[in-house]
Amino acid sequence: MIKCIATDMDGTLLTATQQITVENREAILKAKEKGVEVVVATGRSFQEARFVLEESGLKLPMICVNGAEVRSGDGEIVASNPLDKALARQAALRLVESGVYFEVYTNKGTFTEDEDKAISIIVDIFSTANPEVPIEKIAEAAEERLHKGLITKIEQYDQLFKDDQYEIYKLLAFSLDDDKLGVARNGLKEITRLAISSSGSENIEITSLDAQKGIALEKFVSSKGITMEETMALGDNFNDVSMLERVGRPVAMGNAAPEIIALCGEVTVTNEESGVGKAIMKALED
């Protein structure tokens, strides 16, 4: 019997326009009514993840920034696994040398050195991945990150590396240029003690080795007296692998990367078709 359900957000729980469908919401509430723990496991910061959940009236514990931070349903920090700042600075240098845009996720929010790039590159990536969605809607969602304070402009990232009040959770790099991303990945591999993954073909996610969804999920379920065998996880991309490999019931989205589908014993429909909600209802009925 499934006692815990962990779901990724982008490409999984959310549609291309960053919405949680009614079917997904109702299935989550149904699971909670039956006493099943439901936790979000996302590469997003707490601020960005909470914003979407609150819009849907959902209050869930969250594994944020790929496991760099764990929050209770009330938003309290339960655990954190920041990057060593010397390693973070080395990784940032590799990205700068590769000419790849990146953002820095911290315990005090997400930062960018270039607001225009922060909007334009997200629009380019989302419109390429979701050509059926009007570009105006994608641009609106991208601009909302800045207007609602979900990402903050900073003059230089080095301020974050030098100031002790900031813990560095993740560097998130974006590019539609495969060659640049390849150069960046090769440079990052030279740095030991980094976890390097991605939530899409156009990005690189850099965290501490201990900041992985699967590690954080294992600790979360253990604290609830639940085993990983009694846990279901849903995901669509490579930053979900660490949890999909560990749970008793791994479920791939219909829109997942082929490697993710091959890894899982079960495949649901796409994120646009409420695949999470359908998988949850199936699990509750089994």
UniProtKB/TrEMBL annotation:
PROSITE patterns named among the record's database cross-references: COF_2
InterPro entries assigned: Cof, HAD-like_sf, HAD-SF_hydro_IIB, HAD_sf
Database matches in SUPFAM superfamilies: HAD-like
Gene Ontology MF annotations: magnesium ion binding; phosphatase activity
GO cellular component terms, semicolon-separated: cytosol
Pfam families linked: Hydrolase_3 (PF08282)
Name of protein: HAD family phosphatase
Organism: Mesobacillus selenatarsenatis
